[in-house]
Specification:
Number of strands: 7
Strand content: 35-45%
Length: 100
Amino acid sequence: MAQPYPRAGRHPNGAASFPAAPRGYPHGMAEKKFRRGDHVSWASHSGRAHGVVQEELTERTHVRGHTVNASQDEPQYRIRNDDSGRDVAHRPEVLRREQG
């Protein structure tokens, strides 16, 4: 006898409703590599911000009081902002390489 209501998270035929969520960066994002000295930009609350890559971060560290959960599999980059001169950290998928 069929149940009057399907189980939560499933279609009436018993198949899972949603595929498993991928972990880590979306496909192809981890291959986006930057090197020290690369000019990059990223979206900020006031438009596009620009800066220069200082280093690749591959372990948990702190940048300006913020914890950066970088790893070998999911690196982040320390960037010196051109306008403020301050260092920030960003994941590679939010960065765009600019002509320097």
